[in-house]
Amino acid sequence: MSLCGLVADVADALVELDRSRIPFKRFRAGVGPYGEPQLVRHVAEFLNALDTYRGLTASKRTPDLLIRGRWAIEFKLARPFGDNGKEAENWSVNLLHPYAGNVSVIGDCLKLVTWSGPERKAVVVVCYEHTPPQISVAPLLRAFEVVATQAVGLRIGDRVVESRSGLVHPVHQQLIVVSWEVLGAVEQGDEADKRAG
Fold it and tell me: Is the pTM of this model over 0.90?
Protein backbone atom coordinates (compact mmCIF):
# COMPACT_ATOMS: atom_id res chain seq x y z
CA MET A 1 0.00 0.00 0.00
CA SER A 2 1.76 3.13 -1.24
CA LEU A 3 1.66 6.46 0.55
CA CYS A 4 0.59 8.10 -2.74
CA GLY A 5 -2.46 5.86 -2.97
CA LEU A 6 -3.31 6.38 0.68
CA VAL A 7 -3.10 10.18 0.36
CA ALA A 8 -5.40 10.08 -2.68
CA ASP A 9 -7.90 7.97 -0.72
CA VAL A 10 -7.77 10.41 2.22
CA ALA A 11 -8.49 13.29 -0.18
CA ASP A 12 -11.45 11.35 -1.61
CA ALA A 13 -12.77 10.71 1.91
CA LEU A 14 -12.68 14.44 2.68
CA VAL A 15 -14.45 15.31 -0.58
CA GLU A 16 -17.16 12.78 0.29
CA LEU A 17 -17.71 14.48 3.64
CA ASP A 18 -17.74 17.88 1.93
CA ARG A 19 -20.38 16.77 -0.58
CA SER A 20 -22.62 15.54 2.22
CA ARG A 21 -23.04 19.22 3.20
CA ILE A 22 -23.38 18.15 6.84
CA PRO A 23 -22.09 21.10 8.87
CA PHE A 24 -19.74 20.65 11.81
CA LYS A 25 -21.37 22.08 14.93
CA ARG A 26 -22.70 25.56 14.07
CA PHE A 27 -20.25 26.26 11.25
CA ARG A 28 -21.15 26.59 7.60
CA ALA A 29 -21.54 23.44 5.49
CA GLY A 30 -18.40 21.86 4.08
CA VAL A 31 -15.46 19.79 5.27
CA GLY A 32 -13.24 22.79 6.10
CA PRO A 33 -14.52 23.57 9.62
CA TYR A 34 -14.36 19.95 10.88
CA GLY A 35 -11.98 19.23 13.75
CA GLU A 36 -9.13 16.77 13.51
CA PRO A 37 -10.76 13.92 15.54
CA GLN A 38 -13.96 14.11 13.48
CA LEU A 39 -12.02 14.12 10.20
CA VAL A 40 -9.87 11.16 11.22
CA ARG A 41 -12.96 9.21 12.29
CA HIS A 42 -14.60 9.87 8.91
CA VAL A 43 -11.42 8.92 7.02
CA ALA A 44 -11.24 5.63 8.95
CA GLU A 45 -14.88 4.84 8.13
CA PHE A 46 -14.37 5.74 4.46
CA LEU A 47 -11.24 3.60 4.16
CA ASN A 48 -12.83 0.62 5.92
CA ALA A 49 -15.54 0.63 3.24
CA LEU A 50 -12.86 0.05 0.56
CA ASP A 51 -11.62 -3.50 -0.11
CA THR A 52 -7.98 -2.43 0.20
CA TYR A 53 -8.40 -1.33 3.82
CA ARG A 54 -11.37 -3.37 5.07
CA GLY A 55 -10.85 -4.44 8.66
CA LEU A 56 -7.41 -2.84 8.88
CA THR A 57 -8.21 0.76 9.70
CA ALA A 58 -8.96 2.31 13.07
CA SER A 59 -8.88 5.84 14.46
CA LYS A 60 -6.97 5.87 17.74
CA ARG A 61 -5.37 8.27 20.15
CA THR A 62 -1.80 7.37 19.16
CA PRO A 63 -1.36 7.21 16.24
CA ASP A 64 -4.40 9.12 14.97
CA LEU A 65 -5.02 6.52 12.26
CA LEU A 66 -3.69 2.98 12.27
CA ILE A 67 -3.82 0.77 9.19
CA ARG A 68 -2.73 -2.46 10.84
CA GLY A 69 0.50 -3.86 9.45
CA ARG A 70 0.76 -1.02 6.92
CA TRP A 71 0.75 2.58 8.25
CA ALA A 72 0.73 4.52 11.53
CA ILE A 73 -0.40 8.06 10.71
CA GLU A 74 -0.67 11.33 12.59
CA PHE A 75 -2.93 14.09 11.19
CA LYS A 76 -2.88 17.87 11.42
CA LEU A 77 -4.94 20.69 9.91
CA ALA A 78 -3.69 23.94 8.38
CA ARG A 79 -6.35 26.62 7.84
CA PRO A 80 -5.10 30.16 7.14
CA PHE A 81 -8.69 31.43 7.45
CA GLY A 82 -11.52 30.60 9.81
CA ASP A 83 -15.13 29.79 8.96
CA ASN A 84 -15.90 33.52 9.28
CA GLY A 85 -13.45 34.45 6.51
CA LYS A 86 -11.01 36.17 8.87
CA GLU A 87 -7.34 35.26 8.94
CA ALA A 88 -6.74 32.74 11.72
CA GLU A 89 -4.20 33.50 14.44
CA ASN A 90 -1.26 31.16 14.95
CA TRP A 91 -2.52 28.75 12.27
CA SER A 92 1.00 27.90 11.09
CA VAL A 93 2.18 26.80 14.57
CA ASN A 94 0.52 23.42 13.95
CA LEU A 95 3.34 22.61 11.56
CA LEU A 96 6.42 24.34 12.87
CA HIS A 97 6.70 24.14 16.66
CA PRO A 98 9.94 22.11 16.92
CA TYR A 99 9.65 20.27 20.22
CA ALA A 100 8.81 16.75 21.33
CA GLY A 101 5.55 16.42 23.24
CA ASN A 102 4.02 19.35 21.37
CA VAL A 103 0.92 19.00 19.21
CA SER A 104 2.67 20.24 16.06
CA VAL A 105 3.48 18.08 13.03
CA ILE A 106 7.11 18.06 14.15
CA GLY A 107 6.00 16.84 17.58
CA ASP A 108 3.97 14.14 15.81
CA CYS A 109 7.02 13.10 13.76
CA LEU A 110 9.07 12.78 16.95
CA LYS A 111 6.30 10.71 18.51
CA LEU A 112 6.17 8.42 15.46
CA VAL A 113 9.95 7.88 15.58
CA THR A 114 9.37 6.06 18.87
CA TRP A 115 6.36 4.06 17.59
CA SER A 116 7.18 0.40 18.22
CA GLY A 117 4.65 -1.18 15.89
CA PRO A 118 5.58 -2.86 12.58
CA GLU A 119 3.81 -0.19 10.53
CA ARG A 120 5.52 2.40 8.36
CA LYS A 121 5.02 5.90 9.77
CA ALA A 122 3.72 9.09 8.15
CA VAL A 123 2.27 12.48 8.95
CA VAL A 124 -0.65 13.89 6.95
CA VAL A 125 -1.50 17.59 6.85
CA VAL A 126 -4.89 18.66 5.52
CA CYS A 127 -4.68 22.23 4.24
CA TYR A 128 -7.53 24.50 3.13
CA GLU A 129 -7.26 27.50 0.81
CA HIS A 130 -9.39 29.85 -1.25
CA THR A 131 -9.41 29.36 -5.03
CA PRO A 132 -7.05 30.98 -5.93
CA PRO A 133 -5.26 31.06 -2.55
CA GLN A 134 -5.38 34.33 -0.61
CA ILE A 135 -2.67 32.89 1.63
CA SER A 136 -0.79 30.01 0.03
CA VAL A 137 0.24 27.12 2.27
CA ALA A 138 3.23 26.37 -0.01
CA PRO A 139 5.78 28.43 2.00
CA LEU A 140 4.60 26.77 5.22
CA LEU A 141 5.11 23.29 3.74
CA ARG A 142 8.64 24.20 2.63
CA ALA A 143 9.35 25.72 6.06
CA PHE A 144 8.19 22.51 7.76
CA GLU A 145 10.63 20.46 5.68
CA VAL A 146 13.53 22.78 6.51
CA VAL A 147 12.78 22.90 10.25
CA ALA A 148 12.09 19.15 10.46
CA THR A 149 15.25 18.08 8.66
CA GLN A 150 17.76 20.82 9.40
CA ALA A 151 16.78 22.11 12.83
CA VAL A 152 15.27 18.99 14.43
CA GLY A 153 17.23 16.29 12.59
CA LEU A 154 14.32 14.21 11.30
CA ARG A 155 14.59 11.99 8.25
CA ILE A 156 11.44 12.32 6.15
CA GLY A 157 10.50 11.03 2.73
CA ASP A 158 9.56 13.09 -0.30
CA ARG A 159 6.43 15.21 -0.06
CA VAL A 160 3.28 13.49 -1.39
CA VAL A 161 0.43 15.81 -2.41
CA GLU A 162 -3.19 15.44 -3.54
CA SER A 163 -5.42 18.47 -4.23
CA ARG A 164 -9.17 18.76 -4.63
CA SER A 165 -11.11 21.90 -5.58
CA GLY A 166 -14.76 22.89 -5.83
CA LEU A 167 -15.54 22.42 -2.13
CA VAL A 168 -18.86 23.78 -0.87
CA HIS A 169 -17.51 26.08 1.88
CA PRO A 170 -17.17 29.75 0.80
CA VAL A 171 -13.77 30.11 2.54
CA HIS A 172 -12.32 26.59 2.48
CA GLN A 173 -12.75 26.23 -1.28
CA GLN A 174 -10.00 23.73 -1.98
CA LEU A 175 -8.07 21.19 0.01
CA ILE A 176 -4.53 19.93 -0.22
CA VAL A 177 -3.61 16.68 1.50
CA VAL A 178 0.15 16.57 2.09
CA SER A 179 2.12 13.71 3.59
CA TRP A 180 5.67 12.72 4.41
CA GLU A 181 6.87 9.31 5.49
CA VAL A 182 8.73 9.53 8.81
CA LEU A 183 11.92 7.54 8.36
CA GLY A 184 13.60 8.26 11.68
CA ALA A 185 15.86 10.77 13.35
CA VAL A 186 19.44 11.59 12.56
CA GLU A 187 21.70 10.06 15.20
CA GLN A 188 23.68 12.53 17.31
CA GLY A 189 26.98 11.21 15.91
CA ASP A 190 25.71 11.58 12.34
CA GLU A 191 24.83 15.21 12.97
CA ALA A 192 28.26 15.89 14.49
CA ASP A 193 29.91 14.26 11.47
CA LYS A 194 27.94 16.53 9.11
CA ARG A 195 29.03 19.65 10.97
CA ALA A 196 32.67 18.49 11.04
CA GLY A 197 32.66 17.48 7.34
Answer: yes
